[in-house]
């Protein structure tokens, strides 16, 4: 079993930066791929970034060049550095992982929720104009 816990959300003005963290505990050795989803009010949950154990990263176009996903295996942590934030980035952000020991990063940015077995509780990011 895996437990994910996000932190680092908050309110920021447009153009600002926020860094989200996700602490993983439990059987973290099985987590080959991890990623970030977000869900704005009235919208579907969308995958925005992912990282595989081979170092490959994936981003959706709306965050490419502004967000950076990274992982610290020693700390069992996943991060999302978000720069140049826009009001449309306002959402609840979720850390996610799947139990498959193969590269699955592309499925996160395809918003394939069926793949994800482990979810964090979410952290709110609000960007004001």
Notes on the protein architecture:
The chain contains one helix and eleven strands, in the order βββββββββαββ. It has one helix spanning 105-109, and strands at 2-7, 10-13, 18-26, 33-39, 46-52, 57-59, 67-72, 77-82, 91-97, 118-119, 123-128. The strands form two sheets. Strands 2, 4, 5, 6, 9, 10 and 11 form a seven-stranded mixed beta sheet that branches. It has a four-stranded antiparallel beta sheet with strand order 1-3-8-7, with no helix packed on it. The N and C termini lie far apart (40 Å).
Would you summarize the structure shown here?
The protein is mainly beta and 129 residues long. Helix content is 4%, strand content 49%.
